[in-house]
Write a structure and sequence with these properties.
- The protein is elongated, with a radius of gyration of 25 Å.
- An eight-stranded mixed β-sheet has the order 7-5-6-4-1-2-3-8, sandwiched between helices.
- It has two domains: 6-205 and 297-304, Spore Coat Polysaccharide Biosynthesis Protein SpsA, Chain A; 223-294.
- With 310 residues, the chain is of the alpha/beta class.
- The longest helix has 34 residues, at 261-294.
- Helix 9 (224-254) runs antiparallel to helix 10.
- It is built from ten helices and eight strands.
- Helix content is 50%, strand content 15%.
């Protein structure tokens, strides 16, 4: 078995109650292993940072990075990967929905030579509406994006040092980690577990946030929506020309009738809707270009006990 210094990366936002619990659960799994537990406080508004700070003061293996405000989970993941020092890095949520007993299975995959070992959950416990929408989303996204995304596979995974460095080479501002993990490739192993319902606190993922996250995934890894605008415009233009031709023939044969209110309003509303949708899609890409050109940092650090400040 090859020697391994392990980093456990835990992005945390308003998880004050769960911080001590996940630490204790991890200590039971990592008792005989050289490791660090790295918490990323994503600008929490409760006592999350206080709990992390207390753990760090009492246990030298606990490291932390605290943001000046809430920059989002993607920024927290990036900061964690930049600061993690392990030969392998396991990404986990702080809400205890990622079972700590899987750490040993993830490490087994690493010892077998895999650079990515991904934990995949089932949908037990999720609402029927959410499960249905999720299945539909992944069926759509599998057809349109340039990377492979699988239902049930999220951020809970192990990355080798080689895979971590590969992810860090991708410096775009609009990040979608699921897509980035797939894009870098590397040999991958999947381990399975049953979905666990959150015991403490409320989920930070509302339907609105999930929808926005889904759009981010579609837009970040393909340009097909822009092509849909082009094809849609061409089809509508051809149908409009055909309609004009039919109406011209009818006028030549029967003369001019009183224009129909319904046909005019329908055409205006339909074409207006198509134009607005197309502009919205184009705007999504233009907005991302604008954000990238500003080159703002992904996050700002308020406090850390890490020597490596990136």
């Amino acid at each position: 078995m090859k020697a391994c210094y392990l980093s456990i990366l835990i992005p945390s936002y308003n998880e004050s109650y769960n911080i001590p619990l996940i630490y204790q659960a991890l200590k039971e799994q990592l008792a005989k292993m050289d490791h660090e537990i790295l918490f990323i406080d994503d600008g929490s508004e409760d006592d999350t940072f206080k709990q992390i700070h207390q753990l760090a003061a009492a246990h030298e293996e606990v490291k932390y990075v605290s943001f000046t405000r809430n920059f989002g989970k993607e920024a927290a993941l990036l900061a964690g990967l930049r600061h993690a020092r392990g030969d392998a890095v396991i990404i986990m949520d702080a809400d205890l929905q990622h079972p700590t007993y899987l750490v040993s299975e993830l490490l087994e995959g690493y010892q077998e030579g895999y650079d990515q070992v991904v934990a995949k959950r089932d949908r037990n416990g999720d609402s029927k509406v959410r499960s249905l929408l999720t299945k539909i989303y992944y069926k759509i996204i599998d057809q349109v994006v340039d990377v492979k995304l699988k239902d049930g596979e999220g951020d809970f995974r192990l990355l080798s040092r080689k895979a971590v460095e590969a992810v860090l080479e991708l410096s775009e501002g609009n990040r979608f980690s699921k897509g980035l993990f797939s894009w870098i490739g590397f040999e991958q192993k999947t381990v399975y577990y049953s979905n666990k319902v959150r015991d403490n606190g409320d989920s930070k993922w509302s339907y609105k946030k999930l929808i926005n996250y889904g759009i981010e995934g579609i837009v970040s890894f393909n340009q097909k929506p822009l092509r849909v605008c082009l094809y849609g415009g061409l089809i509508i233009m051809c149908l409009a020309l055909l309609y004009i031709l039919v109406m011209l023939v009818q006028i030549i044969r029967t003369g001019v009738d009183v224009p129909g209110y319904f046909s005019i309003i329908s055409s205006v509303l339909f074409l207006g809707g198509v134009q607005l949708v197309s502009l919205g899609i184009i705007g999504e890409y233009v907005g991302r270009i604008y954000a990238e050109t500003k080159r703002r940092p992904h996050y700002l650090i308020r406090e850390t006990n890490m020597d490596r400040d990136l």
